[in-house]
Design goal:
Length: 192
């Protein structure tokens, strides 16, 4: 019995000790770099390869790779790349194709757009806030329609308020009958 008491007391004393002053040395060394290599080739149907990818990592954060694909004009495009602490650095086998030029109608539309944009920008530079006379006003027809909808809304709101009051009165009446029935003041025959 004494041994059990001593064991309990010593384990409580040891678990409550402050060990924050002890410096622990790391006994596990950092893991070695994990280099890898992979590559694949693929195609849209068996026997046809239209894309390839290969990549090598030395495990220190530098990745070198290459990929190629067949573009829509059936030209093979190849990209070699290096990814390191300074970013992703691709090298293209061919310069990307030029952007298509605008047709005559597209060029005219762009010119007209930029002219209108410049005109509006100039107007706003001189008058940053809209003039009261240029703000759209309601026509007589719009004002009449708005008044009609406002009146209809009032009628509907009144109807909803009346229906809600009627439902509330019926619910109070039903609760009162149920309460009286529970008290036994009216019989079941009178209730129905």
């Amino acid at each position: 019995m004494l041994v059990k008491v001593l064991l309990i007391v010593s384990s409580v004393a040891l678990t409550s000790c402050d060990v924050s002053h002890l410096e622990l040395e790391a006994t596990t060394p950092p893991p070695p770099p994990k280099p890898y290599v992979f590559s694949y080739s693929a195609g849209r149907y068996p026997g046809h390869i239209d894309r390839q990818h290969a990549e090598v990592s030395d495990g220190s954060g530098v990745v070198r790779g290459t990929f190629s694909y067949v573009d829509p004009s059936q030209k093979v495009r190849k990209v070699d790349y290096v990814a390191d602490k300074d970013g992703f650095h691709p090298t293209l086998s061919d310069a990307p194709p030029e952007h298509p030029t605008d047709s005559e109608s597209v060029a005219k539309a762009k010119t007209r757009h930029f002219e209108l944009y410049a005109k509006i920008a100039e107007e706003h530079a001189h008058h940053p806030f809209p003039d009261e006379t240029t703000v759209p006003r309601q026509s007589a027809a719009v004002a009449a329609a708005a008044a009609k909808h406002t009146q209809l809304f009032r009628v509907i709101a009144e109807q909803h308020a009346r229906i809600a009051a009627e439902r509330e009165a019926l619910q109070r009446e039903e609760e009162e009958k149920q309460h009286l029935q529970e008290l036994g003041q009216i019989s079941a025959a009178e209730y129905y």
